[in-house]
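Notes from the 1:1 (GR / supervisor)

We went over the backlog. Supervisor wanted to see one worked example end to end before approving the batch request, so GR pasted a single chain during the call. The sequence is below; no edits were made to it. Supervisor asked that the structure be written out right there so they could see what the output format looks like.
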Amino acid sequence: MFGTHDLPLFALTVFVLNATPGVDMAFTLLATLRGGVRGGLAATLGVCAGCVVHVLAAAFGMAALMAASATAFALVKWAGAAYLLWLAAGMLRAAWRPQPVAQATLAPPGTWRLLRQGFVTNVLNPKVALFFLALLPQFIDVAAANKTAAFLFLGAWAVLQGALFLVAFVLLVAPLRRCSPRPGVVRALHLAGAGLFALLAARLAFAAQRP
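Structure output shown during the call:
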Protein backbone atom coordinates (compact mmCIF):
# COMPACT_ATOMS: atom_id res chain seq x y z
CA MET A 1 0.00 0.00 0.00
CA PHE A 2 1.36 3.44 -1.02
CA GLY A 3 4.55 1.74 -2.17
CA THR A 4 5.38 0.11 1.16
CA HIS A 5 6.45 -3.46 1.94
CA ASP A 6 6.91 -5.91 4.84
CA LEU A 7 4.14 -4.33 6.91
CA PRO A 8 3.93 -7.21 9.45
CA LEU A 9 7.62 -6.74 10.19
CA PHE A 10 7.05 -2.98 10.46
CA ALA A 11 4.23 -3.53 12.98
CA LEU A 12 6.43 -5.86 15.03
CA THR A 13 9.29 -3.36 15.00
CA VAL A 14 7.01 -0.54 16.16
CA PHE A 15 5.63 -2.74 18.95
CA VAL A 16 9.11 -3.58 20.24
CA LEU A 17 10.06 0.09 20.21
CA ASN A 18 6.81 1.08 21.97
CA ALA A 19 7.45 -1.53 24.67
CA THR A 20 11.00 -0.27 25.29
CA PRO A 21 10.97 2.04 28.35
CA GLY A 22 11.72 5.66 27.50
CA VAL A 23 10.60 9.23 28.05
CA ASP A 24 7.07 8.77 26.64
CA MET A 25 6.34 5.64 28.68
CA ALA A 26 7.78 7.17 31.85
CA PHE A 27 5.71 10.34 31.47
CA THR A 28 2.54 8.36 30.72
CA LEU A 29 3.14 6.13 33.75
CA LEU A 30 3.54 9.06 36.13
CA ALA A 31 0.57 10.90 34.59
CA THR A 32 -1.59 7.81 35.12
CA LEU A 33 -0.49 7.37 38.73
CA ARG A 34 -1.25 11.02 39.43
CA GLY A 35 -4.38 11.50 37.35
CA GLY A 36 -5.86 8.05 36.79
CA VAL A 37 -7.19 6.96 33.40
CA ARG A 38 -8.09 10.53 32.43
CA GLY A 39 -4.59 11.78 33.21
CA GLY A 40 -2.96 8.87 31.40
CA LEU A 41 -5.12 9.35 28.32
CA ALA A 42 -4.35 13.08 28.31
CA ALA A 43 -0.63 12.30 28.42
CA THR A 44 -1.09 9.73 25.64
CA LEU A 45 -2.89 12.26 23.45
CA GLY A 46 -0.12 14.80 24.01
CA VAL A 47 2.61 12.27 23.20
CA CYS A 48 0.81 11.16 20.03
CA ALA A 49 0.31 14.78 18.93
CA GLY A 50 4.05 15.25 19.32
CA CYS A 51 4.66 12.14 17.21
CA VAL A 52 2.46 13.60 14.48
CA VAL A 53 4.68 16.68 14.44
CA HIS A 54 7.77 14.46 14.14
CA VAL A 55 6.23 12.46 11.29
CA LEU A 56 5.39 15.62 9.36
CA ALA A 57 8.81 17.10 10.06
CA ALA A 58 10.58 13.94 8.95
CA ALA A 59 8.41 13.60 5.85
CA PHE A 60 9.10 17.17 4.75
CA GLY A 61 12.76 17.41 5.67
CA MET A 62 13.16 18.84 9.18
CA ALA A 63 14.41 15.57 10.63
CA ALA A 64 16.88 15.32 7.76
CA LEU A 65 18.17 18.76 8.76
CA MET A 66 18.70 17.59 12.34
CA ALA A 67 20.45 14.47 11.09
CA ALA A 68 22.81 16.56 8.96
CA SER A 69 23.34 19.54 11.27
CA ALA A 70 25.05 19.01 14.62
CA THR A 71 23.95 22.48 15.70
CA ALA A 72 20.26 21.90 15.00
CA PHE A 73 20.36 18.54 16.72
CA ALA A 74 22.14 19.98 19.77
CA LEU A 75 19.66 22.86 20.13
CA VAL A 76 16.65 20.54 20.17
CA LYS A 77 18.46 18.04 22.39
CA TRP A 78 19.39 20.58 25.06
CA ALA A 79 15.93 22.16 24.97
CA GLY A 80 14.41 18.73 25.59
CA ALA A 81 16.84 17.96 28.43
CA ALA A 82 16.10 21.33 30.05
CA TYR A 83 12.36 20.68 29.89
CA LEU A 84 12.74 17.26 31.50
CA LEU A 85 14.81 18.83 34.29
CA TRP A 86 12.07 21.42 34.77
CA LEU A 87 9.55 18.60 35.21
CA ALA A 88 11.90 16.89 37.66
CA ALA A 89 12.22 20.11 39.67
CA GLY A 90 8.42 20.36 39.85
CA MET A 91 8.19 16.85 41.27
CA LEU A 92 10.93 17.64 43.80
CA ARG A 93 8.94 20.66 44.99
CA ALA A 94 5.85 18.48 45.32
CA ALA A 95 7.83 15.86 47.29
CA TRP A 96 9.01 18.33 49.94
CA ARG A 97 5.80 20.35 50.18
CA PRO A 98 4.20 19.84 53.63
CA GLN A 99 1.02 17.79 53.30
CA PRO A 100 -1.54 16.76 55.93
CA VAL A 101 -2.10 13.02 56.31
CA ALA A 102 -5.69 13.35 55.13
CA GLN A 103 -4.50 14.91 51.88
CA ALA A 104 -1.66 12.49 51.28
CA THR A 105 -2.40 11.63 47.69
CA LEU A 106 -0.95 12.13 44.27
CA ALA A 107 -2.93 15.23 43.36
CA PRO A 108 -3.85 15.00 39.66
CA PRO A 109 -2.68 17.87 37.44
CA GLY A 110 -5.17 19.37 34.99
CA THR A 111 -5.97 17.38 31.87
CA TRP A 112 -4.82 20.15 29.52
CA ARG A 113 -1.61 20.54 31.50
CA LEU A 114 -0.78 16.85 31.12
CA LEU A 115 -1.65 16.95 27.43
CA ARG A 116 0.61 19.97 26.93
CA GLN A 117 3.46 18.41 28.92
CA GLY A 118 3.21 15.17 26.96
CA PHE A 119 3.28 17.09 23.69
CA VAL A 120 6.28 19.25 24.62
CA THR A 121 8.20 16.31 26.11
CA ASN A 122 7.82 14.37 22.86
CA VAL A 123 8.41 17.25 20.46
CA LEU A 124 11.64 18.25 22.23
CA ASN A 125 13.09 14.75 21.90
CA PRO A 126 15.11 14.74 18.66
CA LYS A 127 15.62 10.99 18.88
CA VAL A 128 11.93 10.51 18.04
CA ALA A 129 12.31 12.49 14.82
CA LEU A 130 15.47 10.63 13.89
CA PHE A 131 13.73 7.34 14.67
CA PHE A 132 11.07 8.08 12.07
CA LEU A 133 13.70 9.24 9.59
CA ALA A 134 15.80 6.11 10.09
CA LEU A 135 13.07 3.46 10.31
CA LEU A 136 10.33 4.41 7.89
CA PRO A 137 12.42 4.56 4.67
CA GLN A 138 13.41 0.92 5.21
CA PHE A 139 9.79 -0.08 4.51
CA ILE A 140 9.29 2.09 1.41
CA ASP A 141 9.86 0.64 -2.06
CA VAL A 142 12.60 2.29 -4.06
CA ALA A 143 10.20 2.44 -7.00
CA ALA A 144 7.30 3.93 -5.00
CA ALA A 145 5.49 6.54 -7.09
CA ASN A 146 4.98 8.92 -4.16
CA LYS A 147 7.52 8.41 -1.39
CA THR A 148 6.09 11.26 0.71
CA ALA A 149 2.68 9.56 0.74
CA ALA A 150 4.34 6.28 1.71
CA PHE A 151 6.25 8.03 4.49
CA LEU A 152 3.07 9.64 5.82
CA PHE A 153 1.19 6.33 5.66
CA LEU A 154 3.83 4.52 7.70
CA GLY A 155 4.09 7.45 10.10
CA ALA A 156 0.32 7.44 10.68
CA TRP A 157 0.46 3.68 11.25
CA ALA A 158 3.26 4.08 13.82
CA VAL A 159 1.44 6.87 15.66
CA LEU A 160 -1.85 4.93 15.77
CA GLN A 161 -0.15 1.75 16.94
CA GLY A 162 1.78 3.70 19.56
CA ALA A 163 -1.45 5.31 20.77
CA LEU A 164 -3.15 1.93 21.16
CA PHE A 165 -0.14 0.61 23.07
CA LEU A 166 -0.15 3.56 25.48
CA VAL A 167 -3.92 3.34 26.01
CA ALA A 168 -3.54 -0.34 26.97
CA PHE A 169 -0.62 0.61 29.23
CA VAL A 170 -2.73 3.29 30.94
CA LEU A 171 -5.62 0.87 31.55
CA LEU A 172 -3.17 -1.66 32.98
CA VAL A 173 -1.50 0.83 35.35
CA ALA A 174 -4.57 2.85 36.41
CA PRO A 175 -5.85 0.35 39.06
CA LEU A 176 -2.69 1.01 41.09
CA ARG A 177 -4.06 4.47 41.83
CA ARG A 178 -6.90 3.01 43.92
CA CYS A 179 -4.46 2.41 46.76
CA SER A 180 -4.40 5.08 49.48
CA PRO A 181 -0.69 5.71 49.99
CA ARG A 182 0.76 7.16 53.17
CA PRO A 183 2.52 10.56 53.03
CA GLY A 184 5.92 8.85 52.95
CA VAL A 185 4.91 6.74 49.96
CA VAL A 186 3.59 9.80 48.12
CA ARG A 187 6.86 11.61 48.79
CA ALA A 188 8.86 8.60 47.61
CA LEU A 189 6.85 8.43 44.38
CA HIS A 190 7.46 12.12 43.70
CA LEU A 191 11.18 11.68 44.40
CA ALA A 192 11.31 8.60 42.16
CA GLY A 193 9.57 10.53 39.38
CA ALA A 194 11.98 13.46 39.78
CA GLY A 195 14.95 11.09 39.66
CA LEU A 196 13.57 9.32 36.60
CA PHE A 197 13.06 12.58 34.67
CA ALA A 198 16.53 13.78 35.70
CA LEU A 199 18.02 10.51 34.45
CA LEU A 200 16.13 10.76 31.16
CA ALA A 201 17.32 14.37 30.80
CA ALA A 202 20.92 13.23 31.26
CA ARG A 203 20.49 10.45 28.70
CA LEU A 204 19.00 12.90 26.22
CA ALA A 205 21.72 15.50 26.85
CA PHE A 206 24.45 12.98 26.09
CA ALA A 207 22.65 11.32 23.18
CA ALA A 208 24.71 10.91 20.04
CA GLN A 209 23.50 12.50 16.82
CA ARG A 210 22.94 9.13 15.18
CA PRO A 211 19.40 7.72 15.77
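Supervisor's comment: Residues 7-205 form one domain.
Batch request approved.
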